[in-house]
Amino acid sequence: MVREEVGEIGRDDMLIDGVETEQKPNNEVPDGFNVNYLKIYYGKFFPYADMHKWMSYGNDGKHPGCDQSYFGRREFSFTLDNDIYLRFQSFNNVPELENAIKEKCPFKIDIGPVYSVDPAKRHAYAQSGDNVFTPVERELIFDIDISDYDDVRFCCSGADVCPECWPLMTVTIKVIDTALRDDFGFNHILWVYSGRRGVHCWVCDGKARRMTNEQRAAITEYLHVHKGNENSLKKVTLVGQSLHPFLGRSYTEVLKDFFEEKFISSQNLFSDEERYEKILEMIPDESITSELRGKWQDNKRVRDDINVVRWSHVKHLLQSSKHKGQGIRKCVEEIVFTFTYPRLDLEVSKHMNHLLKAPFCIHPKTGRVCVPIDPKHCEEFDPSGVPTLSKLLEELNMGALGTGGEDELDNTSLGESIRYFRTSFLQPLLKSCKEEIESSYTAKIQQSKNSLNW
């Protein structure tokens, strides 16, 4: 459960692209990622004060109800050059956080839970014999990686991503965000681009942060439907007479249209025999699959998109009145869910002690900043348009930074992401946190008065 403070992590995750250091003309900076670039980024661009405000959840104020030790009990971990991994870093304030990051220049910053005691002093408590070092708060987090869709996307594989398969991440954001807000009543949700091939979700409401591992597991299981046979393409088996309201809403409002109007054509699911055979394998009635094969092996040219035409054949046969079986009728939905429904890394969400990469880090493979994504406009998000380290340094060379203060990044390509983080996520979150702190403090004072009166 707990790694060593300093150690090696998998080389595969941290290969650093080689870059030429020779300065190009016209303020251009060579693409890539290196320690010198990163030092400048941490010196000029990283939003330390905003990160501190977020991680303090209102406890950095003067109100008597504030817990002044709160931020100092948060675990940060740094991955340094040469894959050196430092866990259980903790900081009492913004200057400490800023100085440590500038001094150590981590290639990656991960954020862990808030512990019962300062993580840096955990050994002192361990020697006392009491098991007091334990996580007490943690955002509910989700980690979705596009490489988990490799069995259903044919344009890319592994870490590669393109405009044809990235919309799978858009679908994930729409489905999960709606469920978290509508079904569980969460309001303060931050979606972040991982910098390369996926998205991260931070649910920051007080009731989410204080959930037990069992409660986290229950929410994760609610959102998880990929429970089919690992050896077959069909990863989803839908049970019952009708879809659960959450799944039904996801299907009608997001998945169905995306699959039919975009995905089957962008991935050419039915124009290639090997691909459509995978879909036919998911249909448990041989008479239907034989009929479809016969139809499709007649190579008459069709004027419309062959993918759309063949999908309509599948739907017609599976939903026609002569096939009464519930399993056959649900097959259409199961195919759509198998290809498009979010694929979550369950363990990351179920346990409080998991670490997740901090927003506004730089991904060492792509040089891209891990920027927030607005779920209301997630279909407009383009990973290839995200600010990169070299682009930010070019802007710095051209004098895009202001003279200081909170708005100094406004004229850079990172400005929009910082503004969104502050106004749409941080401000409403902190307002809610301060109200919660005041209300809790007032209740405590009242309780104290009542006990004295008694």
From TrEMBL:
InterPro entries: DNA_primase_S, DNA_primase_ssu_euk/arc
GO cellular component terms given for this protein: alpha DNA polymerase:primase complex
CDD domains: AE_Prim_S (cd04860)
Single GO BP term: DNA replication, synthesis of primer
EC numbers for this chain: 2.7.7.-
Enzyme class label: transferase
Known cofactor(s): Mg(2+); Mn(2+)
GO molecular function: DNA-directed RNA polymerase activity; metal ion binding
Keyword field: DNA replication, DNA-directed RNA polymerase, Metal-binding, Nucleotidyltransferase, Primosome, Transcription, Transferase, Zinc
Pfam families: DNA_primase_S
Family statement: Belongs to the eukaryotic-type primase small subunit family.
NCBIfam families found in the cross-reference section: primase_sml
Protein name: DNA primase
Organism from which the protein derives: Buddleja alternifolia
Phylogenetic classification of the source organism: Eukaryota, Viridiplantae, Streptophyta, Embryophyta, Tracheophyta
